[in-house]
Amino acid sequence: MHTVKLPKKFTAGLALLALLVLVGEPASAPPLTMDMLWPNDDGRSWSYDQHYELYDLDFDLLEIVDNVIRLVLDGSTVAPDGINAQYLRQQLVSGPARATKLAGVPADPFLRQLWIARPDLRDRIQLAQLDAPCPENAPAGSYAVLLSGEFAFVKAVDEVAAWRCNLPNTRSWQWLVSNLTIGNTFTLQLVPDLASDVYLHGTIAANESATVPAGTFSNCVRVDYVIDYGTSACTDSAGNPVGTFRSETRGSIHFAPNVGPVRSHEEFTPYTQVTGACTPPEGVGQGFTALQLNSPPVPVRRTSWARVKQSYR
Q1: pLDDT tens digits for 280-310?
Q2: Distance between CA atoms of 112 and 132, rounded to whole angstroms?
Q3: Which residues contact 191 (CB under 8 A, 6 or more apart)?
């Protein structure tokens, strides 16, 4: 029998191949879970570059604002019915905080857009501000609705949401759900004490990378959102109905595993649907807001006052 002697490099390659067969392929990354997408250890904060643009209905640029805001999980709060929550605080770090030129327009970004989208609700919105959601202060210099603070933040088994502190058993917002299957949708009725047709619609849209000033984050979950502000009636100078119109906010947030929300973008568009002879009232305009994480979030290690005093003995 004739024996063929294989080169050493070839036999070494076969040995490596046999080892790979025995050991198997490297373990793949664990599947994404909702819990990974927004770490909520107390004291953790996220700093964002915020860019805001305001246009009129002819798309003439009226205003641009660039500033820096911070979201921070700052202790605990309790919503009605004993719902334990975290306080998601929002702060203006640097840059301007535009003051609206229209009397009566709320400072809260969502109520501000609802005030524009629903003239029929303005009296109720004014009253609602006297009995504000939890916490009570509206963040200065904030323009984003999809990603903002001053909420009673709750991360439960099946969702990441915010709860009202002035209305029992009522959520004020929903960012994530546990089913991260691409195409999965969720819906939440907003401000049921003000209207019956204002809704938030969310869609688990994609797994993709997001590049922001803080770096490139892979395997992000992008959630797309639509806020439907419902139907508002138009009237003439005599108060007679002449038609209806609808407005909406559309946008998305990228959630990076073990980091949290790293990027958001949204567009508020009034008069997306019009019937009859509606004409936009004063102050109606299109707004664009973008937030980008500008530095890696660093958890804050909290300590007691007794330990602080002990350190200086």
Answers
A1: 766 567 899 999 999 988 676 554 334 333 3
A2: 13
A3: 114, 128, 172, 198
